[in-house]
Design a protein that fits this description.
Layout: E1 4-8, H1 13-25, E2 30-35, H2 38-48, E3 52-56, H3 62-76, E4 81-84, H4 100-127, E5 131-135, H5 148-167, E6 172-177, H6 184-197, H7 200-211, H8 219-231, E7 241-243
Parallel strand pairs: 1-2, 1-4, 2-3, 4-5, 5-6, 6-7
The structure holds NADP nicotinamide-adenine-dinucleotide phosphate.
NADP nicotinamide-adenine-dinucleotide phosphate binds at residues 9-15, 34-37, 58-60, 85-88, 109, 135, 137, 177-178, 180-181, 183-186.
């Protein structure tokens, strides 16, 4: 039997690309995905049939996470890997205008839902010596204008990867930043949050990347995530935070 892999945020962007790449790399793989938008999940189901299963829901709701894990275990008897991809950028706001409830909401999506999903899936991941791949961001340790909530949530995620790898010897974990990728998140930066909340200089930088065709295609980092989930996280990078193009991950690149 092939690998059984859970992926969050599969309705578009990097998450959808991870699903496509997993199936292109290995015809035996089975994916259980989750997102809130039902139509794109139905499209994936139509395309991949009995290799793709989904739960429609918000990952901040523990019952949605339990449904995801339980349906994989009931349907295919195991979980080999988990890719925690779903994430949001907003609130994008300067520290002098912080809305702490908006920060809490972001943390619920970008951090606490992932802690919860790992804790729910951990007994199954231990049985398979499984892998947990966290989608981080360069913003975890670099300053981007008004991205305090987002960047700090990704830094917390990196630490969680390190903690998991050190405390649970039966599983491996890694946090990987995907680079700057041509998805809806970048559209939102260029057209909405950038003009309203970011510095003119940084907005210009993000717009310039698009204009000069320098954004990464989502298939590039998605290949790294898919291969880590499929082939397993090497001992040498277990618990680390790395960029998708770090030399230590060269075997996982397209
Ligand atoms: P995207 O196009 O906006 O896609 C985000 C995905 O997450 C969607 O499938 C969305 O599905 C899902 N999602 C968001 N909130 C959710 C929730 N509460 N419950 C369930 N699903 C939820 O973004 P992306 O660019 O592909 O980003 C994917 C990951 O890469 C994120 O963690 C992001 O922080 C990270 N990243 C992206 C970039 C970049 O340049 N694009 C750079 C660094 C890091 P629904 O809306 O259908 O629920």
């Amino acid at each position: 039997m092939g690998k059984v892999i859970l992926v969050t945020g599969v309705s578009r962007g990097i998450g959808k690309a991870i699903v496509d790449i997993l199936f292109s790399l290995d015809r035996e793989t089975v994916v259980y995905g989750v997102a809130r938008s039902e139509a794109p999940l139905k499209n994936l189901k139509e395309k991949y049939g009995d290799r793709f299963f989904y739960v429609v829901g918000d990952i901040t709701d523990d019952s949605v996470l339990k449904q995801l894990v339980n349906s994989a275990v009931k349907g295919h008897g195991k979980i080999d890997s988990l890719v925690a991809n779903a994430g949001v950028l907003e609130p994008v706001q300067n520290v002098n205008e912080i809305d702490v409830n908006a920060w809490r909401k972001l943390y619920d999506i970008n951090f606490f839902s992932i802690v919860s999903l790992v804790s729910i899936a951990l007994p199954e991941l231990k049985k398979t010596n499984g892998n947990v791949v966290f989608v981080s961001s360069d913003a975890c340790n670099m300053y981007f204008s008004s991205w305090g909530a987002y960047g700090s949530s990704k830094a917390a995620l990196n630490h969680f990867a390190m903690t998991l790898a050190n405390e649970e010897k039966q599983v491996k974990a890694i946090a990987v930043a995907p680079g700057i990728v041509d998805t809806d998140m970048q559209v939102n930066i260029r057209e909405n949050v950038g003009p309203s909340s970011m510095s003119a200089e940084q907005l210009k930088m993000f717009r310039g990347l698009k204009e000069n065709n320098q954004l990464l295609d989502s298939s590039v980092p998605a290949t790294v995530y898919a291969k880590l989930a499929l082939h397993g996280i090497p001992d040498g990078v277990n618990g680390q935070y790395l960029s998708y193009n770090d030399p230590a991950l060269k075997d996982f690149m397209p």
